[in-house]
Amino acid sequence: MSRERIFLASKRAPVTYHRDVAGTLTAELAPGGTANVVADLASQLGVSWIACAMTEEDRHVATQHPRGMEVKVSAAAPVHLHLLQHAPDVFEDMQEIITADLLWASNNYLWDGWTKPTFDARSHRAWKNFETFTETFAATLLERSKACPNPVYLLHDYQMCGVPQHLRAQRPEAPQLLFVHIPWPSADYWRMLPRPMREGLLRGMLGADVIAFFATRWVRNFLACVEDLLPEARVDYPSATVRWEGRTVRAEAMALGYSPSALDIREGEGAPELAAWVGDRPLVVHSGRTDPIKNAERAVLAFTAALQEDSGLRHARMLVKMNPNRLSVEANHQYRDRAARAVEAANRVLGADTVRFTCTNSVNGTFAALRRADVLLLNSTVDGQNLTAFEGTLFNPRDAVLILSERCGAAEALAHVSRLVNPFDIVEQAQALREALRASPEERAEAAKRRREVVLKYDLPSWVRQQLSSLGLGEATGARR
């Protein structure tokens, strides 16, 4: 399938631009899981990609290339990237209020209902700007694809939720898939959003032919939201479809685990400081963004409890590896600080330097930790998927035990080959850690072997084919290997 036919949209571009110390403009892979995952998808296919200019340097590049440019983001085919510039107030409201304060918080259950949320006039003004953001994205996609007689639209992540409705109005024959990379909450929780937002987003999404999530639990929640909030829609749970405005919209779960090409280029070596600190002791690794859903504080509390209850494990070490993300968001930097304080408290109880905390953007540092781990503790309070559970399984040569939150999307695929825990139950997590650290080499090897066999089924090429097949494109796509 040629790139002239496939048009991909996401908030984040695959690359972001900055100036080095000499003032030279350079490109680097954008931070954030969505951008990197979608970049691999795009390279498999060769596409025209529309994304936001996020920085001043991005906007400079966008001005220099108003019709887009070729960018290389992996070993596969280049993509044609068009950086879309929004009015400053529109972009700021989309980024800081709608994305961070509203949709990320609502879909990840970050509100307690007592102190948050409160929607004021500022929230509603931001929503109007988000509608402008959505309309601009849709108009750009339509303009870029107007010469194409049979375009296919792939819309990735939650900032694109309003776009399908606009595309449907102008190109009703064009297949559309909307993929939401984050969890979808229950209908009661979604009702916390103001009526124009919650109903507007659902109506916007139903312009697509297929609405995809990483896990079946998010599909169920989405269907319940539609049934609860759009009485004119007809939801059929067995077929996971919605009858809407004379059309049938399908909701599907499409699990992704890893990108073979991305893992191939990961080094994960050259960490002498880590090796010197750990030595031959068992190592527990907790890895994730600076985001409260990643739940590092409870992970440290569980590790502390495990070692206090079993003196024979006091030689074990724990590394909390964070990747800085959205630290301008109050909840995120408070989460980072709470985790750092938890590590300090653990070391006062267990002995100096038993637990280490690091917060850097070093991808190789993250993979070095995954390679050295004897136990991977991924205890997110909720997670759309959690690719680290899959990547860590394949990248780790030590038969590491995987302890995984039952509220991760990944739990659907890996439930029978990992130890599932309640992310809020420190006692259960501590018990899982004790058992993991006490497991024999034979037990670990057998468990890791079975888990690798499962994980290998969830590769990126299969994910790409699943998306296109859901639109009836199937073998005609010619997806690149």
UniProtKB/TrEMBL annotation:
GO terms for molecular function: alpha,alpha-trehalose-phosphate synthase (UDP-forming) activity; trehalose-phosphatase activity. Pfam families: Glyco_transf_20. Signal peptide: none annotated. One of its GO terms (biological process) is trehalose biosynthetic process. GO terms for cellular component: cytosol. Belongs to the glycosyltransferase 20 family. This is Trehalose 6-phosphate synthase. It comes from Stigmatella erecta.
